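Recall that a protein's primary structure is simply its ordered list of amino acids. Everything else, from secondary elements to tertiary packing, is in principle encoded there. The following example makes that idea concrete.
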Amino acid sequence: MKDLKPYALNILFRAQHNALWELAEKAGIMAEVNLSIASMEYADSSTVAEAKLFKGGIDFIAGNHISPYMWVARNRPIVQIASPGNAVRDSIMSRRPLESLEELAGKEVRIADSNYRDRYGSVQHPRGNHILETFRAGLSPDQVQWVECGEFDDPNLRKNIVEAVASGKADIGFAAYADPETLRDTGLHPLQLPTLPMINGTTITSTFDILHQKEMLADRLVRVMVLAIHFARMHPEEAQKLLDTKMGKPYTEHGGRARGVARYPMKPYPTQEAISAAHELCCLQYEEAKEIQPSALWDLHYLRELELSGFIDELIQEQPESFRSTSATAGV
């Protein structure tokens, strides 16, 4: 692939989905397929990121999960070609011990959480996950009163949720990390919820126009994703050092956790359950999204061709036994 035309890519990422691509560039993986990164910046709005994508100002968005289904319904050429994260697992905190969220079904419940919409008017993905979790536990929307405690990226959000539950303003609160140690001084009780299928990783979101204009770009991006996961598994200490080191790159070096990259599956397919759940969240905000098939957003043939070549299986055989048993299906 070194004979392919070189491209310096412009990337926007959501949440913390930069780490895989930053590692791939710093470890020389992108150079192996004649790619590099010209810019990689955080986008706190999917609306802004998608506008730049459709104008051709960027090559892809890393970690864009919900709104793309709406653009399919509007007949825009958006596409996703891989998803290495297909599940989330949340926790709740409460003043009295709970064994399951289902214990609250049929009762009026006040739930402390992040705001429903972000500052741009879009549904915040974690809050949407929590809404689905209440549905699946048998809580109907008219039973639930949401106590909004701030934006998802507000550094005071967790403290605000704890205070809302501890003071009795809310009955339970959602928290990404709630365990006996972190709640030791609050008097609250943690409960880890079952895994929720959900598109959640550093998805590759682009357009058909962009992928067709640049020689084998989709094939290269999928290969880079797989190789970056492999590198994080085989060289965890070096991978973390690369992410921690400022190397004077032409983009903002945000760093991240190599361990999180290593937990991604080597065959980064989305699951049908995760696709359906992400589509369901989109439908909460965009009625028109109900008219499309959730799978219409996805084009997985690039990944499938790479898998059929035997390339991924060969990489898996090189990895420690602890990774091999979960290489195809693991995901955070």
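The two ends are 30 Å apart (CA to CA). DSSP finds 14 helices and twelve strands in the chain.
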